[in-house]
Amino acid sequence: MTSHGPPDAAPRADAEEHGPIDFVRAQADPSFQELRRTHRSFVFPLTVAFLVWYLAYAVTAMYAPGFMSHKVVGNVNVGIVWGLLQFASTFGITAWYVLFANRRLDPRAVRLREELEAGEFDDADAGRAGGAAR
């Protein structure tokens, strides 16, 4: 039995027309590489920036309690404001990522999926003797 995807993956509707997908070849394709590069160039820097922001909040709360307890308005202090800004920045980053993915990632991913489904990355060795016994 060959394994070309996760065990719970749905069988291809056109399995009779196309052979199994060569995912290694698809992953090496320049369009996939560009999709991955675009995703990483957005996600990794933003993750680092958020972690720095979060750690600044936590470290400031631990080592500068006088600053964090400084009242801004009424009983609302800097710690409360920064804590609420943590939530706001999380929602903001999520919204930004959704916009980014909808505009830059999803169209490329759809094209790549269509190429996979059209058989452009079929496993050329699957039909040869021993090819199915990987």
UniProtKB/TrEMBL annotation:
The keyword Transmembrane helix applies. The keyword Transmembrane helix applies. The chain crosses the membrane at residues 42-64, 76-99. InterPro entries: DUF485 (IPR007436). Keywords: Membrane, Transmembrane, Transmembrane helix. This is DUF485 domain-containing protein. The lineage of its organism: Bacteria, Bacillati, Actinomycetota, Actinomycetes, Micrococcales.
